[in-house]
Amino acid sequence: MSTEENPLWDIYLSYSGRKTYLTCPKQYEFRYITKPVVYSDPRSSMFGSAIGKVFEWFYERRFWAEKDPLMSCLNSVDEAIQWVCEDKKFDRLSDPAFTNILRQELHQYIPHGLEIIREHGFLTTNSSAEVDLTVLYDSPKHGMRLKMGGRADFIHGADKLHIDILDGKGSRHREKYVDSDQLIWYAVQFYLKYHVAPTRLGFVFWKFPKEPVKWIAYDNDAMRNLVDDTFEVAKKIKLQVFNAVPEGHCYQCDYRDKCEDGKKFLAGKKAESRITNSIFDLENI
After folding, report:
1. Separation between Cα atoms, residue 108 and residue 12, nearest integer Å
2. Beta strand pairing status for 128-132 and 151-159?
3. Could you read off the pLDDT of 202-236 as tens digits, one per residue?
4. Angle 15-23/180-194 helices, nearest 10 degrees?
């Protein structure tokens, strides 16, 4: 819960909570404060979650040390599907065709994923997966103590001074859901925790084996700006500033039927569409 009260900190905030607030404060209020029950179809994100779980096990269960690492990964596919179905509260019997397609895609892209790991050296003495980087940051400058939550998908490094932080992406759209601030968030957490800035930050695209990695440039200013922006968000949350920002994101918002401002925005866009279409119809008469 992103506004949980605790004597050790003023606000708890994750990267996803921060991004949600910056997209629309009202959406943040729905998702993290009032939490109305809504239905959201999880299928579009289940491949990424499942293949991420397989490669998490590759490191944590040491599949890499097995005689046949690929077979160990493939043998874990059904367990990963079961895990993601439970995590997403998805009844696999409701759509067996989707489950079969998911299994086929995992069998197709896991071998490519192992090649990505091998070719890019993503197996080191300091490799780990699902690394909890949650950290407390007490900032006299901002007059607040913030608990910054989050887990990095993968951390690699030849030694503790040269570290790569990677986030896996499973979308069929290579960079549609990429936000460099996500990795800079992890960099800030890592620095606060270990007093060392990561050497490289990158995204791994499991469905794009020909262009699998995108490195993100960042510097001290990027980290400072993210921290400043995050504390500004935290202050507004603490003041309960949750004004709606009706824009294009309303179309995909899980709470669009519960948000009055969002409904007005979407109704207005629908009316504009009807007017535009009627004009074109008249021109064709």
Report:
1. 39
2. antiparallel
3. 999 999 999 999 999 999 999 999 999 999 999 99
4. 140
Write down the domain spans for the chain.
11-37+125-238, 43-119, 248-283
Asked if residue 168 lies in contact with residue 56, where contact means CB atoms within 8 angstroms, the answer is: no
Please give the pLDDT value at position 167. 97
The CA distance from 50 to 143, in Å, is 41
Q: Sign of the CA dihedral 140, 142, 148, 152?
A: negative
Backbone dihedral region for residue 121 (phi beyond 0: left; psi -120 to 50: alpha; all else: beta): left
Beta bridge partners of 136: 147
- Return d(Cα 22, Cα 1) in angstroms, integer: 17
179 CB neighbour count, 10 Å cutoff:
14
pLDDT at 285: 46
- Over the range 217-244, which residues count as b (16 or more CB within 10 Å of their CB) and which as e? ebeeebbeebbeebbebbbebeeeebeb
Locus of tokens 């939490």: 35
pTM of the complete model: 0.90
pLDDT under 50 in the chain at which residues? Answer: 1, 284-285
Contact 218, 183 (CB under 8 A): yes
What DSSP designation does 239 have?
T
Please give the share of the chain, as a percent, with pLDDT higher than 70: 94
Instruction: Retrieve residue 159's tokens.
Output: 């030694």
